[in-house]
Amino acid sequence: MALNWFKFAAPASFYPLAGRLIPVFWVLTASTLLIGLYWGFFQTPDQLGGSNPQKDYYRIIFIHVPSAWMSMWLYVVMAIWAAVGLVFKTRLSFMMANAIAPTGAIFTFLALWTGAFWGRPSWGTYWDWDPRLTTELILFFMYIGYIALHAAIDDVRRADRAAALLAIVGLVMVPLIFWSVNCPDPNQCAALHQRSDLTKIEGNILFSMLMITFAFWMYSFATTLMRLRGSILLRESDSTWVQEVVRREARQ
Amino acid sequence: MKTRQQRLIFVGLAILGVGAASALAVSALNSNISYFFSPSQVLAGEAPVDRVFRVGGLVTPGTILRQEDGLTVHFDVTDNAGTVTVAYTGILPDLFSEGQGVVTRGRLEPGGIFKAEEVLAKHDEEYMPPEVASTLHTAHANEVADTAHTIEASN
Which residues in chain B touch residue A51, judged by CB atoms under 8 angstroms apart? Predict the structure, then answer.
């Protein structure tokens, strides 16, 4: 093996690495978020035209679309770490899946919430049981269910395995969310959302959307790693290296 | 190593099973998702008679009529094959306009008029400033006309 991948699978060596990476991710989050928000508010048209004449409020998509994308992406990443944990029994993978869940749940909630605010003026309703909205709500429940199941089992290793299995089963929702709008025949999957098409979005709008998506992604890295460091310390609290870390940080 | 391979197979099978379930659900969604009925389905009697359901389609240009009470609006919803007249009392959403997609929820009255309790406007995937959109609009209209032709041809 040329590169020792398993070196960083050990919590003791990953803990300091994560500590060095977190500030980098925070800087990336702040800078791209500022650029994205500035561009979204000042460099994009004040209202849309043609067959989609939305006014200023269309700018909610700069938060709505990135958080909806992240909600699905983070679930896939979480399920992958859960699967890796189940196969290789690496403690860190389970902790990773565990640390992603709250961030994913927040983004799912944000997508639903901003969607409701946008939906009221444009569609005419906060909520409707349209296929896209319903599947996204179920994804939110999957995140909550994962977190709750993990918290409900006292033995951490049992909790890891049970919750990982649930995460994999919940993976069924991700393609459904995508296909609820993007099926080949638009007459068959009628919904309030239109099928997504990035080529029909003006360049400036697309730029700020992608910029904020990147910012949200970096935010996910930062918060996940912070949470991960916390759970590494908790779970490895009996080991000598954790006690050394605690003693060192207490002295500072 | 033996047990790790067994676990790998187990997790692989689980993911395959989940994928199969997802594929089945997608195909089920495709064939009978009745979030709303199209006007031609309503005319063909496929929609329930004594129950609340949704009708979706495009608002026919030139058919939006405000009634004398000032609150009730009548308009035609079409899918280019059939047309249903909708009556609605209340405030219409921002994006409601002629030629645009709507989803209305309500009951079919004996006279053939669909009495809506709720009218929702559909938005478009086009996010363009007005000047760009106006040039694109003609292209979009042509596209809609094309699909209408293909629907008619396939019927």
Answer: 99-100, 124, 126, 133, 137, 140
